[in-house]
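Q: Please design a sequence for this.
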């Protein structure tokens, strides 16, 4: 996409407590490729194949500045290192819906609360700044850590794509989850905007 046609949605940075979300640049592609080189991570997120340097460059050109996607790297503020990626994709403002993704690519940085913080910052962006109503995610059925992670963020299972994911010679379920604006506000202990109570 030519530079002048790129329509980035959302701020360039979102500052959290321990992490910062920063818009992805071309320079981040080697990190993303390295995370996708790991077959265990690919299995957990449902990515079929690693990404070549050329494919990564083409993909960046296609999605950077696409108004239906807000795409960040997760930066660990402790040492300024890029540890993962997170974003909103398939944003559809007409229906006030979006899908979401969080991947802590650096394995040794998992389980430290950084994924949760990235998730909370994105949900705040989605519901409080973009005025969205529904955020959805599809989770590989055997990814117990991710199922637990999304539940903790307020997502609920809403259905299962039976045998929706083929991996390592076998079919696996794919779990559809979502969080609605009102669920999230209730969880945050904030008024849900229905008035009166
Ligand atoms: C899933 C993922 C995003 C979670 O981020 P994280 O920073 O590692 O997780 P957090 O430290 O914020 O943990 C939040 C909750 O997630 C769940 N969780 C995280 N790691 C877990 C593990 N190894 N086993 C079980 N549950 C786990 C727990 O419910 C945890 O809450 P708790 O600490 O109170 O038990 C991250 O581990 C990751 O990117 N994994 C690989 C890729 C992936 O699965 N992405 C999601 C695709 S849908």
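A: Design:
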């Amino acid at each position: 996409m030519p530079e002048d046609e790129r329509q980035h949605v959302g701020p360039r940075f979102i500052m959290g407590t321990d992490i910062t979300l920063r818009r992805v640049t071309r320079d981040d592609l080697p990190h993303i490729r390295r995370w996708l080189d790991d077959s265990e991570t690919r299995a957990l997120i449902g990515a079929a194949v690693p990404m070549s340097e050329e494919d990564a460059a083409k993909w960046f050109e296609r999605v950077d500045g696409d108004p239906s996607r807000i795409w960040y790297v997760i930066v660990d503020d402790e040492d300024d290192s890029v540890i993962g990626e997170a974003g909103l994709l398939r944003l559809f403002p007409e229906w006030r819906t979006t899908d979401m993704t969080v991947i802590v690519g650096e394995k040794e940085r998992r389980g430290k609360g950084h994924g949760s913080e990235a998730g909370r910052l994105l949900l705040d962006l989605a519901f409080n700044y973009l005025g969205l109503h529904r955020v959805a995610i599809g989770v590989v059925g055997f990814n117990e850590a991710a199922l637990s992670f999304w539940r903790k963020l307020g997502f609920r299972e809403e259905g299962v794509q039976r045998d929706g994911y083929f991996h390592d010679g076998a079919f696996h379920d794919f779990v559809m989850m979502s969080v609605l604006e009102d669920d999230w506000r209730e969880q945050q202990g904030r008024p849900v905007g229905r008035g009166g109570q």
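Q: Thanks. Anything notable?
A: The chain is about 30% helix and 35% strand. The domain at 3-188 is CATH 3.40.630.30 (Aminopeptidase).
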